[in-house]
Amino acid sequence: QVQLVESGGGLAQAGGSLRLSCAASGGTFSSYGMGWFRQVPGKERAFVVGITRSGGSTYYADSVKGRFTISKDNAKNTVYLQMNSLKPEDTAAYYCNTFPPNNDYWGPGTQVTVSS
Description:
This protein is an all-beta fold and about 120 residues long.
């Protein structure tokens, strides 16, 4: 069973940066594509960015293109999300999962709050 634990969230000012990490265990990390998703209260969880299992291809939601970067370290079983030029509308709980996501793998998430 894959277990995922996100970290690195916090409070940032608009225009600032944060780097999220997601540590994976219990599976063969290198065989999975990975993704980041986010959710705000009252709304469904939304796709943010995905990366193929080799890291060779990435996919971004239009709202984060040019600002967010996903990377995957198969040696460390970790996927990262570098978030630059943050906007208040990026405020959400951020979750990692396989890409495409598996409902059995959702972790606790990490909260990102961007102040204007």
